[in-house]
TrEMBL record:
It catalyses: Endohydrolysis of (1->4)-beta-D-glucosidic linkages in cellulose, lichenin and cereal beta-D-glucans. Keywords: Glycosidase, Hydrolase, Signal. The lineage of its organism: Eukaryota, Fungi, Dikarya, Ascomycota, Pezizomycotina. Residues 62-312 form the Glycoside hydrolase family domain. This is cellulase.
Length: 444
């Protein structure tokens, strides 16, 4: 009898543990500051549009507040460009333009005030106007100065995350890893001693090739000045369409094969990675595949610390990969259906953190959402937006964005209420705990 009652006890404990396996960080990219960037690292100033109403663009501040308070999102990726930070699209330098740095800081502060983690993404493909950093283009020293300056500015903000660049490609990975080592040393020595740093590999940081290109081996050899690897994570990107570019509406893979391969590798190395860019359209093929991918990532939370979906911010709902919530006349926000069903639900079903309303002190230090809404002006039609973002954010196989204007987003089937699912899951866990306690008590 004793052994019979003992095994259900273990099974129940297992259920409780399984129910709580979720990634630590659930994120959304707030695109806009990267608009117009080409994969050669040319990023025009005229198309950069940081999504903040105060800057005349979309209400990224309101979006982030909504995502945190209503959904439990706890990380935002905040793309900007080298050209914007120095306010010069022709000539590279490491001297910041105070006005533009101030604008970017406004955006970062709108993120920090929500309590979420805020990822600085210099969206330049390891380049400036065609020149590869440390490989014929801008010098390593210049790039290190850019990062050290930002690290010094945010040294006392534990929630800042440094993503060294977006999607390196067509470069010497050994040299690039040496550049990244200098950047890590620079960031730490500037006082940002504990913050997360994401290390991006070549071939557009693709999960499919991080191992085969030697990127993962080279990048995970990077250390902090004290010799540890604390806070250093492999940066990972992956799309689900047929050429991994994020340009097609149809999904052709759930990426479980690639994420299995990479998980095994990371486990062997006793290291972890963060999927800082992945995304899908609302096509029915993606409802299947994106849900499957994100469920798998949550199940492997020992090696994958989080995932960040692409993208909200300046994109409107006509963008093929739109995750932008829509604000209703009463001020409330309605999430994109794919976001609810395939980004949020897998995380919540796995026991991810519940939404956390901001403390009133935090909200009152900012303009209220309602005020921001009234001043909201959309300066771009979606067609212009699509044209401007052409070639931004290439995946493995080339630029995505060219087909944005032509795309139409079909609506995903109505998602189950995630709040309901969350509550049901919590009740389920409590019930398991109670049963486990009763069984346990009976044993001893
Ligand atoms: C990884 O993804 C690529 C497509 O990006 C695919 O061709 C390849 O077969 C996948 N690898 C595994 C191990 O599933
Ligand atoms: C991937 O697909 C997009 C959309 O058709 C296309 O523009 C791009 O050139 C493709 N890339 C490659 C390398 O096939």
């Amino acid at each position: 009898m004793r052994s019979l009652s003992f095994s259900p006890f273990l099974v129940l404990l297992g259920l409780v543990v399984y129910a709580q396996a979720a990634v630590k960080y659930l994120g959304v990219a707030l695109s806009g500051g990267d608009w117009g960037c080409d994969i050669d690292g040319s990023c025009p100033l005229s198309t950069a549009a940081l999504p903040l109403t105060e800057l005349g663009h979309a209400d990224g501040g309101g979006q982030m507040k909504h995502f945190v308070e209503d959904d439990g999102v706890n990380m935002f990726r905040l793309p900007t460009t080298w050209q914007f930070l120095i306010n010069n699209e022709d000539e590279v330098s490491d001297e910041f333009d105070e006005t533009n740095l101030g604008r970017y800081d406004q955006f970062v502060q709108a993120c920090l005030v929500t309590g979420a983690y805020c990822m600085i993404d210099i969206h330049n493909f390891a380049r400036f106007n065609g020149g590869i950093v440390g490989q014929g283009g801008p010098s390593d020293d210049m790039f290190v100065t850019i990062w050290s300056t930002l690290a010094k500015k945010y040294a006392d903000e534990p929630n800042i995350v440094f993503e060294i660049t977006n999607e390196p490609h067509d470069l010497d990975i050994t040299k690039w890893a040496a550049t990244c080592q200098k950047v890590v040393t620079g960031i730490r020595n500037a006082g940002a001693k504990t913050q997360m740093i994401l290390l991006p590999g070549t071939n557009f940081d693709s999960a499919a090739t991080l191992i085969s290109t030697g990127s993962a081996d080279a990048l995970l050899a990077i250390t902090n000045p004290d010799g540890t690897t604390d806070g250093l994570y492999l940066d990972i990107h992956k799309y689900l369409d047929n050429n991994n570019s994020g340009q097609y509406a149809e999904c052709t893979t759930d990426n479980v094969g690639n994420f299995t391969m990479l998980a095994t590798y990371l486990r062997g190395k006793k290291r972890q990675g963060l999927i800082s860019e992945t995304g899908a359209s609302s096509d029915s093929s993606c409802v299947t595949d994106y849900c499957a991918q994100n469920t798998f990532i949550n199940e492997n939370d020992d090696v994958y610390i989080g995932y960040v979906t692409w993208a909200a911010g300046q994109f409107d709902e006509t963008y093929v990969l739109s995750q932008t919530p829509i604000q209703q006349p009463d001020g409330s926000w309605t999430d994109n259906a794919l976001f609810t069903e395939c980004v949020l639900a897998p995380y919540q079903k796995a026991g991810g953190a519940k939404p956390s309303p901001l403390p009133s002190t935090a909200s009152s230090s900012k303009k209220t959402t309602a005020t921001q809404t009234k001043t909201k002006t959309s300066t771009k039609t979606s067609a212009t937006a699509a044209a401007e973002s052409s070639s931004s954010d290439a995946g493995d196989a080339g630029a995505k964005g060219g087909s944005l204007a032509a795309s139409t987003s079909t609506t995903a089937s109505a998602p189950a209420s995630t709040n309901g699912a969350g509550v049901a899951r919590a009740v389920h866990v409590l019930k398991n705990l109670a049963v486990a306690a009763v069984v346990g008590a009976a044993l001893f």
